[in-house]
Amino acid sequence: MSSYVFPKDFLWGGALAANQAEGAYLEDGKGLSLVDLLPTGEKRRGIMKGNVPSLTQLESEFYPSHEAIDFYHRYREDIALFAEMGFKALRVSIAWARIFPTGEDAVPNEAGLQFYDDLFDELHKHGIQPVVTLAHFDVPVALIEKYGSWRSRKLVGLFETYAKTVFTRYQDKVKYWMTFNEINMLLHLPFLGAGLVFQEGENVKQIQYQAAHHQLVASALAVKACHEIIPDAKIGCMLAAGSFYPYTCNPEDVYQGMEKDRESYFFIDVQSRGEYPGYAKRFFKDHGLNIEMESGDAAILKNHTVDYIGFSYYSSRTTSTDPEVVKNMTSGNVFGSVANPYLDKSEWGWTIDPKGFRITANQLHDRYQKPLFVVENGFGANDVVSPEGEVNDDYRIDYLKRHIAEMGEALQDGVEIIGYTSWGPIDIVSASSGEMKKRYGYIYVDRDNEGNGSLKRIKKKSFHWYKNVIHSDGENLGELS
């Protein structure tokens, strides 16, 4: 049996997002959020990239976030199942438009505030620590319509007001916070990451990096507010992580791999170190980008850096400068990657690389010298319920045990890790595809891609496996393949 020693206060648990789980998309005064305009099907990816046909819902489309898995009404039942597994933490997000339906309301929506009060109380009742993301692919649509979302400086102040409101309300209930989920997604799926909509002929890079600056300043102001309002809290950033391997030892490939990594590290460099790195300044200069900054921005960024680095890890990526190699790109993952001949892929084309998890954790710790928090890691698969009503997801168990083992190795390497909240502990709507059949959970939800199903919850084989992992504090993973 494989055995790893994890800290006794290690936060084992799971992670989900408001827009992929809650449903009740306009209930109790909630405003429309950007994900509520993302349909399933072939149009979804284009819209996520900023090619948005309409900021109103189209009758011809199915929007999976509108009901999702109805966590809004069923969270008590779901939290009881998480508690049965022994969760120490549950990562959730607050829907900004539940608190401020238009993003700039004079007073917050009490019904929205009360929902999260009740949610956090239910978690505490079961001894589960809430880990809360302020913005998880979430901008009120009214702010996109009025200001163009994060391309406008106006959103900095509105986000700060939202952050202060929830810090004040939940200061006794939430001690772990994060600002923006996968902040680097802004460069890859700008509508999903920041509500950005592009018109023909616009300088997309200029808009993206201006929006990034606004988010980075807003993040720093949220850190400042959190430290002032909840002095005993910890607030982190959040990166969609995964190293880029050079396809060969050709220095051109190696350099490109470094540049690809820096695309993502740029955000965390600013949030963790408090200033724009030299390579970013050169990038702006080389591409003719002029980022508008106010006089106090540099001090805000420098004085209000994050306490820890939250990150997701699903797979590594591989890059090449050889045109022939580049023809062999993998599909599925948001981050373009050439196929790595040494690694297998999931049915959605995501590379499976447990060793890359350890590599990424070491790189992040070496770079920032701050605690890490693994807030997403998981395996999307098309699970099937047997005639006996069982889901035997051995492939998920294999993926997770090999990744947790590498996390155990990273701890022995000296990497400080606060906790591990695997992605989608209950099946939820896929952010990338909008599908339900791309399932991550330990708990099956009876719902299909068209929104049909009873929403009944069924424990999978992995439910019992993860319960044993948590109960043993990671010592009992089972045999590694």
Automatic annotation (TrEMBL):
Pfam families assigned: Glyco_hydro_1
Keywords: Glycosidase, Hydrolase
EC number(s) stated in the UniProt entry for this protein: 3.2.1.86
GO molecular function: 6-phospho-beta-glucosidase activity
Gene3D superfamilies, sorted: Glycosidases
PROSITE patterns: GLYCOSYL_HYDROL_F1_1, GLYCOSYL_HYDROL_F1_2
Active site residues of this protein: 376
InterPro entries recorded: GH (IPR017853), GH_1_N_CS (IPR033132), Glyco_hydro_1 (IPR001360), Glyco_hydro_1_AS (IPR018120)
Keyword Hydrolase: yes
Top EC class for this record: hydrolase
Family per similarity comment: Belongs to the glycosyl hydrolase 1 family.
PANTHER family with a match to the protein in the record: 6-PHOSPHO-BETA-GLUCOSIDASE (PTHR10353:SF296), GLYCOSYL HYDROLASE (PTHR10353)
Protein name: 6-phospho-beta-glucosidase
Species this protein is from: Paenibacillus ottowii
